[in-house]
Structures are given as structure tokens and as C-alpha cells.
């Protein structure tokens, strides 16, 4: 394989740039030509592509976002869009593609592989909701951002004897809420994977009020949502003044942590090596701190359970 391309797709995540850098530098070291594709699959269909070299990826290791921009492409899901992308690959001589993104991006990579363009997926999303891997690039930075934001919320919550209900991202997955809730000592964590009731939240708050606790932080996963209403109901039921905060896209930005840069480097390098070995339709993953790879079909059919033991621990000690 002499010519490959790299693209980022779906929601951006800190560490994507470090991963692009690893792909480009590894390919360069192996004498391959590398194209950067702008705005995910949209750029592939529209031939918004440029040749990258060792220097195009200089000084991006520490930058959040993605220098290749990102998009969620509806057109690419159509037969017409897919064929357009394949034509562009043929025209450019692109023989393999590294796709950095989430599950949706991997479905596109699988379909392109079926059309004869071998693709390798690299998990890049803050949500950690890709089942085949223990870790997704961007998670660590995002968690640290959430923790630092909620620490600020806690300061003011404490000063005013308030309850603050904080919504964190994660789409349908409660992973970010669970881990950040544990890390900030949230009084209650509400995630889609664990049934909850308002009564239980109130009961727990009333119990801790008797133990002289006067302020509360409650972390709620995006998949549950409704934090404004929840804060209102808590205030009505407990008499504790309650506010809500939706952290939003602040969670997606910022310079990647050391962990995200390291995982990005290892996965980017691994992906190029897979293409060189003539492999396609694979997803790179991390299992017990080791980089491995799976067939995309297999990867997309896997399931992953949240660690409810951690949930119980959080509830036991954040009182
Ligand atoms: O997948 C990453 C993520 O940030 C999710 O947590 C969130 O649900 C979604 O993307 C938000 O997407 P957008 O940036 O398109 O609003």
C-alpha cells in the first residue's frame, strides 16, 4: 500500500490531532503518501483533500479539536454518496483510509471497506461508548474538564447552601457521568444504565441534611437530561435552593491530556501498520492497556456494561 488517507468524523475529541499526527508520521516513515480529508466523509465525497507531510502535522500534538475538521454526513449513508467517495479514492489512488471517530463513523468505514477501500477505525470520542474498546481517545481530557468545572460549581454551591444539578455529555451512555460523579464526590449520580426515582434522590438528600450536609452536587447524564426540571422538583421537595447547569460543548474542547496523546500516538501508529499488512475493515481498540484490533462487524456487534460496582461505591462514600 503506497497511498492512504486520514479523516476525523463525528463529534470531535481532544487527542484527534495527536492521532492524525501519528498516522501521518508513521506513514511518512514507511514511505507512504498520506492525504488529509477535510470534514469527514463529506470531504471524501467532495474531494476536499490535500496531501499531508511531516510538517503539516507539526505543533498540533497539544491542540484540541481536529485540524481536519469533522462532520456527521447523512449523504455518505446513501448509495450515491458512497459511490462518489469511492470514485474520489480511485481518482486519487487512495488505497486505504484511517477513520478517527465513533460508532457511526465505523459503520461508514465498514461500508467503504465492502466497496474495496480498506478502512481502519480508531475510537475517538469523549463518550467512551464504543463497545469493543476499554478506552476512547478524548475521554481522559473530557473527564478532567468536567471535574474542574464541577469543582467550581461546588465552590459556589457550598457558599450558598445550594443544590446544583449538573448535566454532562455522553449521548445515551452514562460513563462520563458515572466517572465524573465518582471523581467529584457527587451526592447523587443519575445515569441511563441505573433506574432512579425522584423520591430516592429526595430521601438521600433529606438523610444527609440530618447529617449536617448543606450543599449538594448531583451529576446527571445527558441520556437522562431534564436537569432544569429536576432542580425545580428538588427545591420544591427539600426546600434547598437548587440550580441547574448544562456543561455542554466545553467538555469537548481543550488541550489533550498526556493519556489522550499517548493513546492517540499508539493507535495511530497501529492503524497504519494494519493497512501496511494489507488488513482492512478493522477497528483499533484498547483492552487491558494493550492495543488490539477487531473486525468492524464484530466490533459493532459487541456490548459493554457500565461498572455498577463503581456506582455503588460512589453512593456509599459520597454522603
Ligand atoms: O459524541 C460526542 C458528543 O459530544 C455527545 O456526548 C453528544 O451527545 C453529542 O456529541 C453532541 O453532538 P453535537 O456536537 O453535534 O451537538
Give the strand tally. 11
CATH topology of the largest domain: Rossmann fold
Q: Which small-molecule species are bound to the chains here?
A: 6-O-phosphono-beta-D-fructofuranose
Total domain count = 2
The first-level CATH class of the largest domain is given as Alpha Beta
Task: Give a nutshell description of this structure.
This protein has 319 residues and is α/β, with parallel strands linked by helices. The chain is 43% helix and 18% strand.
Mind explaining what this structure looks like?
There is one protein chain. By secondary structure, the protein is α/β, with parallel strands linked by helices. The protein has two domains: 3-138 and 256-301, 3-Layer(aba) Sandwich (Rossmann fold), CATH 3.40.50; 140-252, Phosphofructokinase domain (Rossmann fold), CATH 3.40.50. The chain has helices spanning 16-29, 40-45, 79-92, 103-114, 139-159, 175-184, 198-210, 227-238, 258-276, 296-301, 308-317, and strands at 3-8, 33-37, 49-52, 96-101, 119-123, 163-168, 188-190, 216-221, 242-246, 282-287, 290-295. Strands 3-2-1-4-5-10-11 form a seven-stranded mixed beta sheet, with helices on both faces. A four-stranded parallel beta sheet has the order 7-8-6-9, sandwiched between helices. The longest helix has 21 residues, at 139-159. The protein is elongated. The chain starts with a strand and ends with a helix. The model has no long low-confidence stretch (mean pLDDT 97). Residues 11, 102, 125-127, 169-171, 222, 252 line the site of 6-O-phosphono-beta-D-fructofuranose.
Label this structure with key terms.
4-stranded parallel sheet; Rossmann fold; 319 residues; alpha/beta; 11 strands; 11 helices; 7-stranded mixed sheet; binds 6-O-phosphono-beta-D-fructofuranose; 2 domains
